[in-house]
Structure formats: structure tokens, C-alpha cells
Write the C-alpha cells for this entry.
Amino acid sequence: MSDRTAARRRLLALYALCLGVLMIVLDTTIVTVALPSIQSALAFSRAGLTWVLNAYLLTFGGFLLLGGRLGDLYGQRRLFLAGLCVFTLASLVCGLAQTQPELVAARAVQGVGGAVVAAVSLSLVMSLFVEPAERAMAMGVYGFIGAAGGSVGELLGGILTQTLGWHSVFLVNIPIGIGVYALCAVLLPREAASQAPRSHDVAGAVAITAALMFAVYAVVNANNIGWVSVRTGGFLGLAVALLLAFLAIESYVVEPLVPLRLFLLRNLAAANVVSALWAAGLFAWFVISALYLQRVLHYDPLRVGLAFLPADLIMAAFSAGLSARMVVRLGIRGPLTIGLLLAALGLALFARAPLEGTFVWDVLPGMTLLGLGGGMAFNPVLLAAMNDVGHHESGLASGVVNTSFMMGGALGLAALASLADVRTGALQRAGSGSLAALNGGYHLAFGLGALLTALAALIAVLVLSAARQSAEALSEPYPADRAADTRPGRAL
């Protein structure tokens, strides 16, 4: 095979991998616009509806690091194709679901498949492109697809839901998954699996995922069974016990998913806290603003998707290079803090959105600020996590912060949605109309999301060091030793 043919083959493989990653990233946001339609069709409660998103987030975050370990043991190509099959088949079940349990269970399986694909795809890109210039180009394409893909999810979800119904936001994955599988099966080179004994740490992944699922379940159902009931306390106690078990497992296994020593590093520990708090506000915005637009302002799904377009375009522009240039020029702490404060202000504006709101005065300003804030904050929080570790552990550090982001988003969304439900019920009992009470609940969720995001900004400015060395590293080609441990990918 000539060098030119090999280069073309590598480029086609990159595009196929990026298409697979795009499908995974889209599935985090594409569903949000369809949530009101899903709620009506399957009779979800207001709080229970969060499970449609949380089931995916929890298993995705819980198995993100494990997917990279399994790829080392059994081969990145093999795991990528297996994860793609799991994700695609689960998407089919989601699209055909007729009951709440069917949809939630299929979403959880989607998360497992998505985690495996996301975990090994970046390593596959690194192994395909070894020359510094080629690798820098490939990483630029990969990073842009990952960031911009998540931004356009709401628009695509609105178009599909409006024209084909909510089932289509899942069924669209079927032809994409089949096409990506066929391309990658042909284009990706076969590799020998590692023969060295490796610890899977399945127990650690299961323990942390189960702990968070029990915690979310307790929060979501506390409104119905009582916040101080034995059942709620039991589930929360079980979640705490599983969390302690996870910490014990990580302290003695040979190769833990999350080495606990990492949390002794100042910037990494702070980045994980910031990421979790910011994700709680972000996912509250994704889900509850879509509900506000449909339930309160009576937008159709397509109009909801278009309402997100300003934020989408701004985030895409930052992911295409603006964020990187800001970090190189200003360091990490400044852009991260400013971005989080802008996002908090955007959430605060949504917290006062009226019943008779207009797009220009009551939706667009918040969307714009959240687009600016998210675009500025995403890259710096990842770089802050990697600032205290060497190149050989940069992938592990980014994977840990990605996991914190997913878990914080799931738990935060469950808590804020449940508190919004409590507020709505209280307003209805006080005599407010149903729509006013619903909007009052949304206001509370947005307000709490703004406070959590502002707290993340405060932690960033007080705890993070200046961290300028990572800003310099951002402009350098990815060295080989860094590529060796970038399994978790960049899911943010």
C-alpha cells in the first residue's frame, strides 16, 4: 500500500470514528427537546421524566473508565465495534419502547455502549496518527466534532420530533450505527490484544454506578414516598454504603479505575468539584428550559430546537479554537471563572422568565450567556484537571473529570427536578394556577442551578492555581507518552 493510499485510508477511518463519536455525543442532548413528547406518550411524572436522561448519564459515567481498561485488554478496535453494536441495538429498543421501564432500561444500556465507544475512540485516533502534524490535525477534527456535536443536539432533536415523532430521536442512530460499523470494520487495522494481566476493576465501576443510581432513585421518588420516610432513608443509606465500598475497592485493587491519590492534587480535586457543580446547572438548563419553552410558552419541538441555536453556534465557535486561544493567552483560571459566572447569570435570567415571555427579551439573553459561558469553561476545566499530572496520566485525569461531570449532571438534575416538583405542588396548594405553579417550580430549579454554577466559579477562583503550564501544552502536538493513556476521551 502506497503512502498516499495509507494516508487516505487513515483519514477515512478518522471520519468514521468521529461519526461514531458524534452519534454518542448527540444522544446526551438530542433527547432533551423530545422529553415533553415522551412524557405525554408514556405518562412520566415530572420528576420521573429525569430518568430518561439520567439512566444514560449514570451508566455512561460509571463505565467510561472501565471501557478504556477493557480496550487495553481485548483490543481497542474490538471494543469499539462491540460498544457500537450495544449502543445501536439499545437505540432500536428505545425507539420501539412502549412503556417507561422499557425506555429507561434501554437508555441505561445505551449509556454502557456509549461509554465504551467514547473511551476507546480517542486511543484509536492516536494509534492511527503518529506524526505530530497529522496527530494535531486529527485531534482538531475529533475535538471539534465532539464539542459541536453536543451543541446541535437540541436543534436536530427538535426537527426530528416535530416531523417524525419522539421515537425518531433514537431510531436515527440505527442507520448511522450500521454505517459506522461497516466503515470501521474495514478501515481500522486489527491489533493484538495485550497479553499482560490487567485488573478490570469491574467491581469499582459497578459500585460507583449503583451508588449514584440509588441516590438518584431516592431523590426522584422522595416527593411521592416522603423525604424522611424509611424507604428514602434506606436508599440513601445504601448509596452511601456503596460509595464507601467503592472507596475501599479503589484503595486495594492493583489498577483502580480512580486512583485515590489523584484527589490529593489540588487542581485535579478542585476541577472535579467544579465540573460536578457546573454539570448540575448545565443539565438543569438543557432539560428544564426545553420544558419551559414547550409547557409554558407553548413552543413546538422545532421552535424549541431553534431557540437553542444561538447557544449552539456560540459553543461551536469556541470549540473550533476560540477557547484554546483564550487559554493560551490568559491561562486556565480566568476563562474558567468568567465562563462559569456568565453561565450562572444566564441561569439567573431564566429564573425570572415570565408566563408570557418573548424569545428576544426572555429567552435569547439567557441562551446567549449560557452559550458563552459553556464555550469558555469546557476546555479550561479539563486542562485544570490535567495540570498537576504528567503526560502519562493526562488521559486518566481527563477521564476522572469527565466522569464527575456526568455523575454531577445526573444527580444534580434529579435533585433540581424534584425540588421544582415540590415547589410546583406547594404553589398549587396555595392557590396558584397550574401553569403559574409549573413556572414557579422551573424558576426554583434555574435559581438553584445558578447558585451551584456560581459556587463552581468561586471554587475555581479561590482554589485553582494559575495553571499556565497547561495553557502552553495546549498548543503543542500530542506526544506519544500522552497518547498511551488517553483512554477516557473527551466527553465534555
User: Anything to note?
Assistant: DSSP finds 19 helices and no strands in the chain. The radius of gyration is 21 Å.
